[in-house]
Design brief:
It is built from 110 helices and no strands. The chain is an all-alpha fold. Helix 54 packs antiparallel against helix 55. It starts with a helix and ends with a helix.
Length: about 2050
């Protein structure tokens, strides 16, 4: 039992690990109880057992193991951390529990596994169970299968992955163990329950008996869909919902859920892919070419066997497909054709989407082969093409299908239509967009009129299917001209059709169409009837439709879409009834005469050919009248024009008759239904007369009218051919002129560019210059619409001619094509629902490309060329590639059919010779441009291999590949690339180059897409593996791409995809997903117009190319277009899309249309968010020597949300001209978009820094021009640059100051100059100083000059970090080897000398003799005297005193900015200890105090100062040194702004409530305007003092005054509190408040909160609420050290004051508690040393015993809480912060902290004892070995600091007493004389005080001159001691100085032991916080003395003595002071007069 007692004492977890089984049993039992008790799943208790759970389940003792399993089950069920143990515990269960004989153990083991699945660890459990299936112990295998079955049965197939189980099933069925086979059978039945027949294929090969048994079992299963009975934790709510439904008796929804589940499993997914390429017979490719058909058959049979495998592994099947295609297409034996078709079917079925890349090759061949009649061949071909269709999309094979539709063979037409019908069944309204439907309908409509009935039937079936899929609304426009019988037939077919996806289509289609755009109607119907009814559109139709032609017919083949628009769907137009009159037969002359005689007067007909011209003229007049009165329906146009053409016809000699005749033609064309037949009659004559001087204009009018009736494309073609078939140059040039004009009027839609180009070329070659000029003008007009590609057709013209053409194009650059005014005019009101839907413009976009003539080059791609490209000799291969390149070059634009070229080029992409690879890539780039959007059919077989090249190890090859991919993607859009598995297969390859390039490319492309194919999800697993790639770049790119994948796939899908990762990886990836979720951009919104992309995403393919034109030829084009109906889709942008191919830019048509919007979008808080991201290092900090790609990409990404897309494309274009354009646009928009510019300022500046790295001067000049305007705007807007903006821009701007070009340097200097208006000069200074370190001598020189200018303009304040350091830096350059730099350095220092005088030498320090002599020489030469600058300022002062902002004479900047930048600068200094402004401040405050106590004094501050300065220049009375007493910064800090603010602040404390309210209102105005609030900087303490003095005044005086209206008081309170809240909302200003002031402020506010008198007032509660809010703001926003210190002192004072209210202390403590709550966030910004010193003092005043005696326990608890929090946050490091406490060892605080630390370390259970000992010994060591130097340095630092100076002196005194031999000489040696004497005097004062002597001896050892000159500028002394708190200097310091001054002036110091001074000096050991009242007293005495001292020349000496004596002695009586001061002020004023 002894043993027992041992282990019984152990803790539970130790028992669980004990070697005794009893101990373990007891441990497990206790653990079980503990687990059952813990309610919180996140309790830390769980973590103790993390490592033990595996031991629970694998215990060697069976009894103990059972208990362990129970405990483990409870643990897994309840512990939050249980998931971490999954792998080890489940593998333990499998190996050590499933082999146990006890059923209970197995049951518990299974339960544990299922519980792990429930807590979302299903995959890990499944993995372990599947491993268990390989166990040699059959028991384990059986248990694992049983557990898997149970899991599947309970959780369902969504949670349990079936594929891995099905994979091992056949093996289990073969086991020798019956138990395993039986269990396998059970699980097979369970699996079948979930996936039904999908299981049959994988189990086909098991034993037939077993299969039969299984099938019998399967039949017994219920038919309903199974439901999971158990749910994951995350699905528990679903479970509850299910139960509710069942209780309600309805489980409809459940069924619905499962409805989704069952089809999820695709049998194909469960199969293993088989690799067949290697199994092909070795001689296959020889045999398939053999002459004997039997051998070919053998080869095919071998393939047939292989492709029967239901799933094939991906590979390169191109050779096999090519061989099979050849058999199908060329083999004469039909049996083999059928066999090859079957092989293709097998391949397509086995490869699925992976076969898609070969589909384009095979489809045309199969369709052509349908000419075979044999049923088995036709059936085989049908099966093949259907299988192939499923591997690709209708979009990608549409070209091939449409090409075959025109075949003459009826069987081919029939089978193609049937194939289309079958294909449509697989479509939905989204995959069959209108853009695709239109060409198919057009082709099918021809077939329904075919002579062969089978063709008609097939076409009806196809159209019926289309109708069913997309709904009537989408199809009807194309069926407008189909007669009713046929329409009914189509509808009948539609009803019979059964769709693959059910009838989802119509509704969505209808919805889409409702967004139609008016004005796009029309040609839809015509599309179908294009050829059939070409001729006769009545005028109404065509006029409306000129623009719509773009949409007509299938223009894909490059045919001009000429007549197509002739009105098929005119039924929707107003003049609907006439639409049918499209064709007009040609009538004979007799018939015409007969018809004409009906409508014309008989005389008219007779006189037509009269020989008398007057009769003919009369006849024409009658003719005209008749025509004018005729009705459109009755007008026989053809008859009338034939009459006009009757002899003399167009040979008419009299010009008047001729003019009339031409006018009548125009009238007929306008008023009648004018057909092309009629037009043919007159056109020849019109063209003949177009050059006539007198009749030319009438001829042109007639032509225009005909063009309006018969459409411009047709008319233009006729007119051009007629004009150029005759030889009259005048006619030719006028025809060209007419056409130029007509194009502008009608737009460019449907024009046959090809025909024009040949005619224009003829014209350009003409000898007549007029013809050439007209041709060039026409080209200019065409250029407006077509853009740069137009030039390609004329590149072979002569240089002189080409330069003329270029000049014309240049003229057109930037112009907008005018909106068409004709051709659309009659469309208005023609019907509102005309425009079908938004797809129209897209097609327009692609049609322009088709307008350009495309050359068929397939015949040039000969077998010899292909052989060359594949030759073994690289030189021959190169020749082949060169040939291909030249073929494409010659053709310019080519048709998509390029024969065998793709395969040949693909082979070259992996050529061993990298030069050839690059050449191939450039050919592919050419190909993309030449082929246009049609290149999309080659994406799978050529595009994807280009992506493979991205993995090349050579950088230049990768770059070329990327450029090629981009060129392709620009033409095709992204859909084709993302479809299928090809891209994911590429990403799968573990090639770091490939991965990073591909991910980078996707990250660039995905954000711009509005939708992506679902196949994108296939890339996600590989993306995740990239996130963990070994290569850092790959990881980086993957992280960058993550948000864009998420943007399209959604967070849920992405998170779900992590399921297959290892647990560690999964956690990491999920964390990244969370991060990406925060950065996920929104999808690009659909453009404003209704022109949404066709759902299939064909959009980008069509019009990404549209970009360049808009950029090139018309950068501001679209702004001027108001009319939404105008057909730019067809006209303008069509023509332009081509040129997009040239430029790799991506703006699309829609974006062009949006150019009118703002270019900068204001994103709320966008800039702030970017700054936060940069601060948090979420994005790269903008800091580089040269910009790397990732910076550019990052900027691009950041701009995407706030810069217009089209502008962004310009900004990041590779061509510098686009940058110029972008800058021009930005300049234009600068004024109009101020807000946008400011909100994107950081991005604009960053982009401009990139431009600084460009080599192109024009861009640089333009950028600098823009910057000048930008900074002028910013300063007008009074904007202040943020630190982020400045640091990411200024350094790069400074680089440019070293440019060799003068003009650039000048501009940069001008910009730097202007920047000082929006960014403090003192902050600019360090940046420019950094620029002086450059290697570029020009830059060094310019920077030095700039520094000189800054000092000259802004005084020494700008020198950062201190003037000394800055000057030393500058002086280094005096010895530079470059002469200009030396000169610049010398000039700069001379400038400083002019401002600062001799002190410069002191600041510079030691210079080499040579340098010093150069400097001295230069100073001598510079004519200025040191004091000149200040004197100049001072002299100019008088006439400027009234003007607030006028002291700008010496500045480089305008007056308004002076204030802001000066004050900014002063603010920036507050962080440094430069006390240069001490003197001015004294004087400022003096006045304030006078005003403070009595608001009646009206004394202009500037006037007094000025008076004093005037005195300085009285040469007789004032000694010389006084000049130096006025610091050069006097004017700076005393600028009128500052004095005005001082004056207003002084009024705040006025006794007159109105005066105070007015002053507060003025200050509030300043505070509320961000840009002006800066002015308050430096005046905060002063303002707060005034404010709480007013609070005191209200409390003591106003509230007691019963006469006063209490509303007035409330008003004053609200002003004060409102002001304070405004102030404390600005952190930068709030932080300026010093400790003493904060203490008094809090005292005032808390007193106010406790004022019971306010409660009685109406508004009282509101006042309290506001004060409450204010206190919170003060606590949060003030400098945390100062406020904490102030509260501690306040608490100390309140506890000491026995009379004080206990409530007061309580409120102070509440404030302290709040501060403690804030500590975790603010701890790093707190000066802990100071706080601990305050606590130490507090504990000294209130030892523990004394605190315990307090009535309340709160004080002691508050202190403990504060200390505890500090300990918790800082840990042992807290002990390092006791440096300010004298004898730490005696401090109660240190002991307390040590105790706390020991306690917390013990609690943490770490080896605390050692740590504490170590810690304590370390502390002791520190205390004992405190390095003397460090300690002294600390003390001197304090003496040098403003607020700790007294404390420092006291410490120094103590130290000297303690170590009498200590040497402080070294510390004093480096400081100024003044400082040394100050320290000595201070020590003497303390000594005398301690010894009870009251008088302070005067110091006599300092030369008066030295003294006076030092007072204003103790910069060097104080700053060298490094105070950084920027607070007020203690009054005692001022007093000391004043005493010396008094002695100098012969005044006594008899009564100087002024109360405040003594109170301050009497407690040297406690550095009391200088209370603001003390400050005021000291300042009051100063004002008295300084006034007297400076004005004694006017005053009687006796008066002065008595005044001084009385005023100083009565310092306690304020009233006396004020009266005295008033009198004195009066005297001063009178003396001035």
């Amino acid at each position: 039992m002894g043993d027992d007692s041992e282990w019984m004492k152990l803790s539970v977890d130790q028992k669980c690990e004990h070697k005794l089984w009893k101990a373990r049993l007891s441990g497990y039992e206790e653990a079980l109880k503990i687990f059952q008790k813990i309610k919180d799943e996140k309790s830390p208790e769980w973590s103790k057992y993390l490592g033990l759970i595996k031991k629970f389940v694998t215990d060697s003792n069976a009894v103990v193991q059972l208990k362990g399993l129970e405990a483990a089950l409870v643990y897994v069920e309840n512990a939050h951390v249980a998931g971490k143990t999954t792998g080890e515990v489940v593998s333990g269960v499998v190996s050590k529990v499933f082999n146990q004989p006890k059923a209970k153990a197995k049951e518990l083991g299974t339960e544990i596994c299922l519980m792990y699945i429930e807590i979302e660890k299903g995959e890990a459990v499944q993995e372990e169970l599947l491993k268990g299936l390989d166990s040699k112990n059959p028991k384990i295998t059986v248990a694992c299968i049983e557990t898997l079955r149970k899991a599947l049965s309970e959780f369902g197939s969504k949670i349990i992955l079936l594929k891995p189980i099905i994979k091992v099933l056949p093996k289990l069925f073969e086991s020798r163990e019956k138990a395993i086979r039986d269990e396998a059978k059970l699980i097979a039945v369970e699996i079948y329950r979930w996936i039904r027949d999908a299981l049959k294929a994988p189990l086909q090969n098991i034993n037939s008996v077993q299969l039969k048994e299984l099938e019998e079992e399967w039949l017994k299963l219920p038919t309903g869909a199974p439901k999971p009975t158990r749910f994951l934790r995350s699905q528990q709510e679903l479970e509850a919902k299910l139960e509710q439904q069942q209780s309600a008796g309805g489980d409809a929804e459940g069924g619905g859920d499962d409805g989704d589940e069952v089809p999820q499993i695709d049998a194909y997914e469960l199969l293993e892919a088989v690799e067949i390429l290697s199994k092909l017979p070795k001689d296959f490719y020889d045999k398939i070419e053999a002459k004997k058909w039997q051998e070919r058959k053998e080869a095919l049979e071998a393939v047939e066997v292989l492709v029967k495998n239901p799933k094939l592994e991906a590979g390169d099947y191109s050779d096999l497909v090519k061989a099979l295609k050849k058999v199908v297409g060329k083999d004469t034996n039909v049996m083999l054709v059928a066999l090859a078709a079957k092989c293709l079917t097998g391949l397509a079925v086995g490869l699925r989407k992976k076969f898609g890349q070969y589909a384009g090759h095979v489809v045309p061949t199969i369709l052509e082969k349908f000419k075979e009649k044999k049923p088995q061949v036709v059936q085989a071909l049908q099966e093949a093409i259907d299988a192939i269709f499923l591997t690709t999309t209708l979009q990608s094979i549409s070209e091939d299908i449409l090409a075959v539709m025109d075949n003459k063979n009826p069987t081919i037409k029939q089978q193609t239509s049937l194939f289309i019908a079958r294909s449509f069944r697989h479509c939905t309204s989204s995959t069959l967009p209108k853009s695709l439907l239109k060409p198919f309908c057009a082709a099918l409509l021809k077939h329904i009129n075919d002579s062969a009935p089978e063709v008609r039937d097939a076409a009806f079936e196809a159209l019926g299917t289309a109708l069913k899929v997309v709904g009537e609304k989408a199809v009807n426009p194309f069926l407008a001209d189909v007669d009713k019988l046929k329409l009914d037939r189509i509808k009948e077919c539609s009803e019979k059709v059964e769709l693959v996806y059910g009838k989802k289509a119509g509704a969505t289609a209808d919805k889409r169409e409702s967004k139609a755009l008016p004005g796009k109607t029309a040609a839809s119907g015509a599309a179908g009837d294009k050829d059939v009814k070409e001729a006769a559109a009545p005028k109404s139709g065509p006029l409306k439709k000129a623009p719509a032609t773009k949409a007509s017919g299938p223009p894909k083949k490059g045919k001009p879409a000429v007549s197509g628009a002739s009105g098929g769907s005119g039924s929707k137009n107003k003049k609907g009834p006439d639409v049918k009159e499209i064709v007009e037969p040609e009538l004979s002359v007799e018939v015409c005469e007969e018809k004409a005689s009906v409508v014309l007067p008989p005389t008219c007909l007779q006189l037509l050919d009269s020989s008398n011209w007057k009769e003919r003229l009369a006849c024409m007049e009658e003719f005209q009248k008749a025509v004018e009165l005729m009705d459109r329906t009755e007008m026989p146009c053809q008859a009338l024009v034939r009459m006009l053409a009757k002899k003399p016809g167009w040979k008419e000699t009299n010009f008047q008759v001729m003019q009339m005749k031409l006018h009548i033609v125009a009238l007929i064309a306008q008023k009648g239904n004018f057909s092309k037949t009629s037009a043919q009659v007159v056109l020849d004559g019109l063209v003949d007369k177009i050059g006539d001087v007198k009749c030319g204009n009438n001829a042109k009018e007639a032509l225009t009218a005909i063009a309006e009736a018969c459409l411009l494309p047709w008319t233009a073609e006729q007119v051009m051919s007629m004009a150029f078939s005759q030889k009259n140059p005048k006619n030719q040039s006028e025809t060209l002129n007419w056409l130029s004009n007509a194009i502008k009027e009608f737009g460019f839609s449907g024009l046959n560019v090809k025909a024009f180009i040949s005619n224009v070329k003829t014209a350009l070659a003409a000898t007549n210059p007029a013809v050439r000029t007209s041709a060039i003008t026409l080209l200019g007009v065409m250029y407006l619409y077509v853009g740069p590609p137009l030039r390609m057709f004329f590149e072979d013209e002569k240089t002189a001619l080409l330069s003329q053409i270029d000049a014309e194009f240049e003229k057109m650059q930037g112009q907008t094509p005018p909106a068409p005014t004709r051709g659309t005019s009659k469309n208005v009101g023609g019907g509102t629902d005309e425009g079908e839907d938004g797809d129209e413009p897209d097609e327009g976009g692609s049609d322009v490309v088709d307008l350009l003539p495309r050359v068929e080059i397939s015949d040039k791609i000969t077998m010899e060329l292909i052989a060359k490209i594949g030759d073994k000799n690289w030189k021959i291969r190169k020749e082949g590639l060169d040939e291909v390149s030249s073929i494409i070059n010659e053709a310019k634009f080519i048709q998509p059919n390029i024969g065998e070229l793709p395969a040949a080029l693909k082979g070259r992409l992996n050529d061993s010779n990298k030069i050839l690879v690059q050449q191939t890539l450039s050919i592919l780039q050419q190909l993309a441009v030449a082929m246009g959007p049609n290149v999309k059919q080659h994406v799978k077989n050529l595009g994807i291999p280009i992506i493979t090249v991205l993995g090349d190890s050579k950088n230049n090859v990768r770059a070329a590949a990327l450029a090629t991919v981009n060129a392709w993607a620009e033409q095709t859009g992204m859909k084709e690339w993302l479809e299928g598995e090809d891209l994911s297969e590429e990403l799968k390859k573990e090639n770091p180059f490939l991965r990073q390039e591909l991910l980078g490319w996707l990250a660039e492309k995905l954000p711009a897409l509005r939708s992506t194919p679902t196949d994108l999800i296939l890339c996600v697993p590989h993306l995740y593996s990239c996130l963990e790639d070994r290569n850092g770049d790959v990881r980086k790119k993957a992280q960058d791409a993550l948000p864009f994948f998420m943007m399209h796939l959604g967070y849920e899908k992405m998170a779900k995809a992590t399921g297959k990762l290892k647990p560690t990886s999964k956690d990491q990836v999920l964390a990244m997903l969370e991060k990406a979720k925060a950065n996920m951009p929104a999808k690009p919104a659909a453009p404003v117009k209704a022109s949404s992309k066709p759902a299939g995403g064909a959009g980008p393919a069509k019009f990404q190319p549209v970009s360049a034109p808009v950029e090139d030829s018309m950068s501001s084009s679209v702004e001027s277009k108001p009319d939404p109906k105008k057909t730019r889709g067809g006209g303008v942008s069509k023509a332009k899309s081509v040129q997009g191919k040239k430029m790799p830019s991506k703006a699309s048509l829609k974006e062009d249309d949006d150019k009118s919007g703002p270019i900068f979008i204001v994103v709320p808080n966008g800039k702030e968010q970017r700054m936060r991201d940069e601060k948090a290092l979420k994005v790269l900090k903008w800091n580089f020597t040269t910009p790397r790609d990732e910076y550019i990409e990052q900027l691009k990404l950041q701009m995407s949300s706030c810069v217009a897309r089209w502008l962004q494309d310009e900004m990041f274009h590779s061509d510098f001209q686009h940058h110029n354009k972008a800058l021009a646009v930005m300049v234009d928009h600068l004024e109009s978009e101020k807000e946008g510019v400011i909100s994107c300022l950081d991005l604009i500046l960053k982009w401009l820094t990139l431009r600084f790295f460009d080599t192109n001067t024009s861009v640089l000049m333009k950028a600098l021009e823009y910057l000048k305007l930008l900074f002028t705007l910013l300063s007008d807007e009074e904007y202040h640059l943020t630190e982020n903006e400045a640091s990411s821009f200024i350094p790069y701007l400074i680089l440019k100051v070293g440019e060799p070009k003068d003009v650039i340097r000048k501009d940069v200097r001008a910009i730097l100059n202007r920047m000082c208006l929006v960014y403090p000069a003192s902050k600019m200074f360090p940046f420019i100083m950094e620029g002086t370190k450059s290697k570029n001598s020009k830059q060094r020189a310019e920077c030095l000059e700039e520094l000189g200018c800054l000092v000259e303009s802004y005084g020494m304040n700008v020198c950062q970090p201190t003037p000394g350091k800055a000057l030393k830096e500058m002086a280094i350059h005096i010895g530079d080897r470059d002469n200009t730099v030396r000169n610049a350095a010398l000039n700069t220092i001379v400038t400083v000398y002019n401002v600062h005088g001799d002190q410069v030498f002191k600041l510079i320090g030691n210079l080499s003799e040579k340098d010093m002599s150069m400097l001295e020489e230069r100073i001598k030469r510079s004519a200025k005297r040191p004091a000149a600058a200040p004197i100049k300022q001072v002299e100019e002062r008088p006439q400027r005193t009234q003007n607030l902002n006028s002291n700008a004479n010496m500045l480089r900047k305008g007056p308004a900015e002076d204030m802001s930048s000066r004050l900014n600068q002063a603010r920036s200094l507050s962080g440094h200890s430069e006390a240069t402004h001490t003197v001015p401040r004294e004087f400022q405050l003096d006045l304030d105090e006078i005003e403070n106590d009595n608001g009646t004094v009206r004394c202009e501050m500037p006037a007094l100062v000025q008076h004093k300065l005037d005195d300085i220049f009285e040469p007789v009375l004032i000694p010389e040194p006084k000049i130096r007493a006025v610091s050069p910064h006097f004017d700076d800090m005393h600028s009128n702004t500052a004095s005005t603010i001082n004056f207003i602040i002084s009024q705040v404390a006025s006794g007159d409530i109105n005066t105070s309210v007015q002053a507060l209102t003025q200050i509030d105005e300043v505070l509320r305007q961000e840009d002006k609030s800066e002015a308050m900087s430096g005046h905060i303490d002063q303002f707060l003092i005034a404010t709480f003095m007013q609070l005191r005044l209200i409390y003591n005086t106003h509230m007691a005054d019963e006469k006063l209206d209490k509303d007035e008081i409330i008003k004053l309170y609200s002003c004060i509190i409102g002001n304070m809240i405004s102030l404390f909302q600005m952190e930068n200003l709030a932080r300026e408040a010093s400790t003493g002031v904060l203490k008094d402020l809090m005292h005032g506010l808390i007193t106010l909160m406790l004022d019971s008198r306010i409660e009685d007032l109406e508004e009282g509660q509101q006042v309290f609420r506001s004060v409450n809010l204010l206190v919170v703001k003060v606590l949060e926003k003030s400098d945390q050290t100062n406020i904490l210190s102030a509260l501690l002192v306040l608490l100390q004072d309140s506890l000491l004051a026995t009379a004080g209210s206990p409530k007061f202390s309580e409120l102070v403590m509440k404030c302290l508690w709040r501060m403690v709550r804030l500590l975790p966030d603010t701890i790093n910004s707190i000066n802990l040393d100071r706080i601990l010193l305050d606590i130490h003092i507090f504990m000294k005043v209130f030892p523990k015993e004394k605190l315990k005696q307090c009535k309340s326990e709160f004080p002691i608890r508050t202190l403990k809480t504060l200390l505890h929090t500090l300990c918790k946050l800082k840990g042992p490091k807290i002990l390092d912060h006791l440096t300010m406490i004298d004898n730490k060892n005696e401090s109660e605080l240190e002991a307390h902290l040590c105790r706390m630390m020991k306690h917390s370390l013990d609690q943490m259970g770490s080896k605390s004892d050692k740590e504490t000992e170590k810690g304590a010994s370390r502390i002791d060591e520190k205390a004992s070995k405190a390095k003397v130097n460090d300690f002294l340095a600390e003390i001197f630092k304090k003496i040098g600091s403003k607020e700790n100076t007294k404390e420092g002196l006291a410490e120094l005194y103590e130290y000297k007493k303690k170590y009498s031999d200590a040497d402080i000489e070294p510390f004093l040696k480096n400081s100024s004389q003044f400082f040394q004497s100050y320290v000595e005097r201070g020590l003497r004062v303390i000594e005398m005080e301690r010894e009870g002597k009251g008088r302070i001896p005067s110091s006599t050892g300092i030369s008066p001159q030295m003294e006076v000159s030092c007072v204003p500028t103790p910069t060097s002394t104080v700053s060298s001691m490094g105070n950084t708190n920027g607070e007020e200097v203690g009054p005692s310091v001022y007093l000391e100085r004043l005493k010396i001054l008094r002695q100098r002036c012969g005044l006594e110091n008899t009564k100087q032991d002024d109360r405040p001074a003594l109170t301050l000096l009497s407690k040297p050991s406690v550095p009391a916080v200088v209370s603001s009242t003390d400050m005021l007293h000291s300042k009051l005495s100063q004002i008295r003395e300084s006034r007297e001292q400076h004005h004694h020349l006017d005053l009687d000496s006796n008066q002065m003595h008595s005044a001084a004596t009385t005023s100083s002695s009565s310092s306690s009586s304020t009233a006396a002071n004020i009266d005295d001061l008033k009198k004195r002020l009066e005297r001063i004023k009178s003396s001035r007069k």
